[in-house]
Each structure stands twice: as C-alpha cells, then as structure tokens.
Amino acid sequence: MATLKLKKPAGPATPARSAPRPPVRGAGSGAKKARPTLAQAQAERAERDAQFRRAERDVPQQRRAPAAPPRSRPAESPPRRARPPIEPTQRSTAFDRPPRPSAHPPRRDERDGNDTNTEHAPGSMRLSKRMSELGLASRREADEWIAKGWVRVDGAVVAELGSRVLPGQRITIDAKATNQQAQRVTVLLNKPVGYVSGQAEDGYEPALVLVTPNNQWRDDASGVRFQREHLRSLVPAGRLDIDSVGLLVLTQDGRVAKQLIGETSEIEKEYLVRVEPAEPGAPRLSEQGLALLRHGLELDGEALRPAQVEWVNDDQLRFVLTQGKKRQIRRMCEAVGLKVLGLKRVRIGRVMLGELPPGQWRYLRRDESFD
C-alpha cells in the first residue's frame, strides 16, 4: 500500500526575532531584584530629603510662598467671679412659678352642670339640667334645642349653651321641639337568651338586631308603622344579662331613659326567678334568708334599697326592685346560698310583658306609661 507524504509548501521565511522576549514574571529564569534592607531604605529616604532641601534653597526668594505669620497667643480672659451659693430659702422650683395662662376655656363639671372657675347667681343651674329635672327633655336634647333657638326663658329666646336659670323662671319650648320629640319611638322587646342588651361583646349580638319588620308582633296595637329612622339612636333603657330573658326597653326618647335609669328613678321592675340551693342537699331558704333579700344586703360597699321578695312556688321567687345594679338579683341570691337557674323580667312600672312572644317586639302605645 502506497503512502502519501505531504510536504509543507514553500513560503517566505519566518523573520528572526529582533530581541528575546522578557521572561514571564514568576515563571522565567531572569534574576529578581533584591528588596532593600531597612537600613538601606532609611538611607535612600535621607538622601531624597537632602536633595529636596538643596533644591528649595536654589529657588529665588520672590517665588517662595510667604510664610504664615506666627499665631499670637490670645490674651487671657479675666477669671469669672464666683457666684454666691443659693440659700435653701432662695431656691426656685416649678411650683413657685406663676401658672401659664391656659388657651382653653375653664372646664365644666358635667355632672352637676356648674362651672368650676366662674361665679354665678346663688341657686342658679344650667338651663339643660333644669329642663331635665322638669322632664321636658334629656340634657342632650335640651342642648340641641337651645342651639336651635327652640327654648324660651320667661318669654325670651335663649340660644347660648351653658346659660343658667333660677328655679323660679318659666321655661317653654317651641312647637318644633314638641313635634320632633313626638316622632321618637320606644320599643318593647322580649329578649331571648344569648343576646346582650347594649353593644356586641364576646361574640354575642346586641338585642337591637332583633328589631326588624319580620319580628314585629302581629298583635302590635300601637298603630305605628316601622321605619328605618326608628333604629337611629335606639338605645336600651336598662339591661338584662345574656342568660336573662324578658322585657327590655329600647328608646329614642331621652325622657323615657331618664325615667327608667336615672339616679332618682323609682320605677319598679318585677322579675320571676327560678332558684335552687347552691349546695346539693341544703335545706330551702330560711325566713331569715328571705328577710335579708328584702332588706339588709349590700353590694359594692353600698346598702341596697328595700325590695319585695316572696315565694311563687317551690322553686320560684318573685322580686320587685327599684334599682338595677349589675347582676343584682344573681348576686343577692348567692349571698343567701341560692343559685339562679333562670331569670325573667315581666314588668317595668305599669308596662307588662304580657303575651309578647320571645324574640319579638312592639311599639309603646301613646296611652301607655311607665309611671
């Protein structure tokens, strides 16, 4: 078998290099420059400094930068005169300074309606408070009417909030205020278990959610037709616990609220309470315990008003109270060794729960009154 030999074509000769390439750093065989010792480096630095000083002397004087004038030492200030020590009786504190003038008007005592920093005629009181005492309106209503110019004192219109009157002055209200008040409604609800009286809490809904057209009692004889405006500012006048049932009053009328829950209210509330001894096997409530329920107990450090308490049957008591402390009946029963199993309010003043079904409501009729 023949073998083919390839020959490199003839071409121009490769030019010879003019100079050898320097060796690659670290890989070549060229000699490395030795590092100077410390003494040699110091000698080289001294030589360079000497050359610089010789060259500076050869520069003409006018070309040199003017030397900065020597900094003069500031004159010593005279020593400060020591202050005399302050005697303890001369020390000033924040309590000794006069008070700064306040940018706000004097605070009013909202409870009794008197200005704390203003002198008034002896025996006078705020007009809104006097109107509330006379049963003309709640204090909030009265302030609203005064601002609208619907209130007259001895025939003169009074439109300034905070105005004061004497007990002997005659107060009249405009017909507009009377009409507005007449349009406000009061609702009677038979509250079932599981609803709170006021604001929602702990996942429980307020009783107000039951006031709907579908829940209005079909035997409502008030003649009032449900309107969405009746839900506005409809608030409970009194309360019932989550586990309590019966008559709950919701009203837009401040006069009704004051009548039922005011500090001076004497309206009776009647309850039927099913009880059992707190200790299993304990005897029935004694006559002494029954007497304590009627009068002799105190809650939160305050003596309770006298109450009517009597047995209705073997396990049910009838309570008639003129006050409404939080969980009052349950706490009264605990104090005499009783456990409450059920509580139902059946009357407030002259208004009875009657046959109103649980969860339903009706309007307070115009011929009905709590007192």
Question: What is the topological layout?
Answer:
Layout: H1 38-58, E1 108-109, E2 114-115, E3 125-126, H2 127-133, H3 139-148, E4 151-153, E5 156-157, E6 164-165, E7 171-173, H4 175-182, E8 186-191, E9 235-236, E10 245-251, H5 254-261, E11 269-277, H6 287-294, E12 298-299, E13 302-303, E14 308-313, E15 316-321, H7 328-335, E16 338-348, E17 351-352, E18 361-363
Parallel strand pairs: 10-16
Antiparallel strand pairs: 1-2, 3-6, 4-5, 4-7, 8-10, 8-18, 9-10, 11-15, 11-16, 12-13, 14-15, 16-17
Helix pairs in contact: 2-3
3D architecture notes:
With 371 residues, the protein is an alpha+beta fold. Among the domains are: 62 residues, Roll (Structural Genomics Hypothetical 15.5 Kd Protein In mrcA-pckA Intergenic Region, Chain A); 101 residues, Alpha-Beta Plaits; 81 residues, Alpha-L RNA-binding motif (Alpha-Beta Plaits, 2-Layer Sandwich). It contains 7 helices and 18 strands. The strands form 5 sheets. Strands 8, 9, 10, 11, 14, 15, 16, 17 and 18 form a 9-stranded mixed β-sheet that branches. A 3-stranded antiparallel β-sheet has the order 5-4-7. Helix 2 packs across helix 3. About 7% of the residues have low confidence.
